[in-house]
Design a protein that fits this description.
four-stranded antiparallel sheet, mainly beta, 125 residues, globular, seven-stranded mixed sheet
Length: 125
């Protein structure tokens, strides 16, 4: 199983950014997909998740209304559209896959089926 994130970078407060994660080695439509993030010196935390067909989405309170998760099962790809970025959003963002969307929301991180290597997002003026 391989999850490969892309789209991270350095942006200014208020900017937008879209992350992508392409999966291989698994039956993508059988898995819920999610995004977590880890800021320097902190634990990895849940950001967003979606069920197998994208009809149900879940967000942490810190990003709800600013971030949107979506997926394209024809491309084995999940996206995280981030808007109105804040310095507090600075972190390494990880893509995750699991057959249980609840596990993607609640963790613990070491129980999640698969992780990507992460893509770094820095929000700074």
């Amino acid at each position: 199983v391989q999850l490969v994130e892309s789209g991270g970078g350095l942006v200014r407060p208020g900017d937008s950014l879209r992350l992508s994660c392409t999966a291989s080695g698994l039956a993508f439509r059988n898995y819920a997909m999610g995004w977590w993030r880890q800021a320097s010196g902190t634990e990895r935390e849940f950001v967003a998740a979606t069920n197998w067909n994208g009809n149900s989405t879940y967000y942490s309170s810190s990003v709800k209304g600013r971030f949107t998760i979506s997926r394209d099962n024809t491309k084995n790809t999940v996206y995280l559209q981030m808007t109105t970025l804040e310095p507090e959003d600075t972190a390494v963002y990880y893509c995750a896959a699991d057959q249980l969307v609840s596990r993607l929301q609640l963790g613990p991180a070491n129980s999640v089926y698969a992780w990507g290597r992460g893509t770094e997002v820095t929000v700074s003026s």
